[in-house]
Amino acid sequence: MAKKLALIASKGSLDWAYPPFILASTAAALDYEVSIFFTFYGLTLLKKDLSDLKVSPLGNPAMPMPVPMPNFVQMLPGMESIATMMMKQKIASKGVASIEDLRSACIEAGVKLIACQMTVDLFDFKKTDFIDEIEFGGAATFFEFAGESDVNLFI
Amino acid sequence: MDFDKELDARNLNCPLPILRCKKGLSEIEPAKILKIMATDPGSVKDFQAFCKQTGHELLAQDEAEGVFTFYIKKRAN
User: B10 to chain A, minimum CA–CA distance in Å?
Assistant: First the structure.
């Protein structure tokens, strides 16, 4: 019987978008049955338009920077956009997949994508903002597959 | 070594070589051989792990000038 993987994706920045989609697509390639539960900021990763995912150097002292950059510079208007642009260039130049590609790979491989209904209500998201290949559910839905999974990760 | 299908995963990073490999294997018959080229140094361990977990057979692997080549025989269904 196929092994099962259950993920919770709770973060919605460009950098943190990678772990759930990399792990899910790879597990699917290894014949795992995979489900991802998207909650809070993770819901952003299910939107039709992923082009506004951003990465911020603020509050992240481990982020490699081309030149040392004090916090008060990082908080200037436009710095987040610059950091995001640089990250996207780096991603492309190193042959790292885009989030769009990894998400498509997950969908193609039959990874189940579940959006947290409570978060949709909380943030007044519209269901039409999201891609079609998702289901909506709550914590009990998560445990329905997490309880019988071999690997469970919170990201 | 003889092979039935060739796949170029050079200049792609984790996990793309594995995802391409999986797709490539789905397009050939059991017991046929897929040749894959990659430049990601992490792919060496990853292809070994992929084959170990999926039951496909890693027949051979080599490296020349930074290009890793893998020959994988598709498992019987």
Answer: 9
Q: Which residue of A has its CA nearest to B16?
A: A97
**Domain at A4-54+98-154, CATH homologous superfamily:** DsrEFH-like (3.40.1260.10)
Is the distance from CB of A113 to CB of A46 less than 8 angstroms? yes
Expressed as residue numbers, the domain containing B69 is 5-73
Q: Would you kindly state where each structural domain of chain A is located, as residue ranges?
A: 4-54+98-154
Beta-carbon pairs below 8 A across chains A and B = 32
pLDDT of residue A32: 97
Question: Looking at B6, B14, B31, B49, which residue is catalytic?
Answer: B14
Cβ–Cβ under 8 Å, residues B7 and B21: yes
Phi–psi pair at A127, nearest 5 degrees: -60, -25
Q: What is the pLDDT along chain B (77 residues), one digit of tens a residue?
A: 899 999 999 999 999 999 999 999 999 999 999 999 999 999 999 999 999 999 999 999 999 999 999 999 999 97
| Total domains, chain B | 1
Q: Of B11, B39, B53, which is closest to A30 when you measure between CB atoms?
A: B53
